[in-house]
Amino acid sequence: MAMPAAQAAALAKPTGVTVTEINFESFVFRWKPVAGATSYTGKLATNAKFTKGVQHFKTSKSTRKPIRLKNCTTYYFKVRANKGSASGSYSAVKKVTLDCFWPREFSTIKVVPKSGTSIALKWKKPQYATRFEIWRSTERDFSANLVKVKTSKDWYLDTNFKASKPGKSYFYRILAFNKSNTKNVRYSPKLEANLKTSVPQGLKVVGTSPNGATLSWNTAWNARQYEVRAATDTGFTTNVKTLKTTDGSNRLTFNTLGSGKKYYFQVRAVNGVKENVVRSTYSATVYGATLRAGVPLTVMSFNVKSAKYDDGVSSRRWNNRKPAIASTIAGSGADVVGVQEAYASDNYPGGDGVTPQWEDLRRTLAPKGYQRALTGTDGVYSYSQCKKDGCWKDEYKLDGNHIFYKTATVKPIGKGGSISLPNPDNRGSGYTASWQVFEKRDGSGVRFAAVDTHLYSSGITKRGVYEDRRTAQVKAILSTLKNNAELADLPVVLLGDLNSHGGHKPVSTFLAGGFADTAGLDVPQTKANFNSSHGFQNPPPSTFGTQIDYVLVSKDVAVKKWELVANIDPKTGKFVGTIPSDHHAIKAVVTLPR
Which domains does the chain have, with CATH numbers? Predict the structure, then answer.
């Protein structure tokens, strides 16, 4: 029997409705008890009109905890008081949104280069994920050129690119969200992506040696490196060798090929470093024949540090370093050595005030079988003749660059000479490159030219004007080698402190001019992890690739070995004995063509 209307009207509308303990599938409603109420009836729905997902409940308490609800869903709730069979009015509607489950981890993501200007991403949608945001950057840490795109799909085609030379890598990350929730986000791993490359064109053999071949080709779109393969058959199944450029250069030299053989070559472009690396198909095939076996030669470049240097440390003074320098040279077995900073000055600490540094070194090396090439500006004077006829200025103008040779294995031909280089800082002694023609004493009659230089030293780690000044000096050397009749047709070994890192314009200008860097070839290397210049640090720094001292060879000279010469304890990494100079000596074993 219904309660009289007056009695029902006496039941107040519940107030103070609150929501607590919200989680992924439930929450707790509470309200203030209504005087006289014996129970409460409530409605729960997924829309404000209470027409969808409706649930009813009845309770004797002023609280209710619905369970097994749907995560990330908004619910609407209202309650009224009952007394017997009579019911009062519903409370104000209360709204609550459940927490969203975190999207699960990404299990599968595919990165597909579609073309030279587009990249596709495809992924398996993680559980609970309903929308995504794609991040793209040119940096792995997403610190630059960040682009964000939102989507509800499980794929994305990125077409916002332009092909480039050289190529570059892009980095992606996908963020997964559950509906509109932005707190519970799941990040994918960082992904490296690379555009498709074009096939390199214009492959050609530009030089051969007894054990090598130098190839060049036109740069390809989006290429960051190149892979070149060689084989003795057109199917590339026999005597196959594959090399990869490390700096995007479109020039590469093989140095471990068989002598006197015909080889076939192909090149393909590579874009990428670690992940999702893209490779083009191989280019058209070209061929070339290596030269027959040549004549071995060992050469060295060594900056011996000015004898005037004195920082107060006794072991670094010239008289104490000189024996270690001579032992380094003689112990290497080098046939020809280009030294730098052996100046004409005779007023250095420990000197006699008469003998210049280069002559002091010559006297020390002579008992060990070495003599100095007479490459003065007039090219005829020995030290004794200098004192007699006054050629001190000639030697001064050599700027410390002197060529020493092993008398038992090679002999100088002609008077040699020096090349005057641009003088950007108006140095009194200027800048030079000394040169000398030699002949092997093995009966082969093979001749070659040795060149020794020390380039402008300011701003070694800088580019711009400093690099341009050294590059101008390199061009002067190349011009002389090309136009001097005594040098034009000879194999050349170029020794020197170029004050330039690999990849800088002075070095790349030499390479473009037909030279190869013996440190950058596919030959056995020793102590390549050490910097060529160490500034008397002990232990010396060992960051791979930071070289400023070089042995370069013309394209007709094959390279067998490369070595940074230093007496270093392998356990401690420190020098053993006296440190000869603030530079390490650089040695290469090469083969001259017959």
Answer: 5-97 (2.60.40.10), 109-194 (2.60.40.10), 204-289 (2.60.40.10), 295-417+496-592 (3.60.10.10)
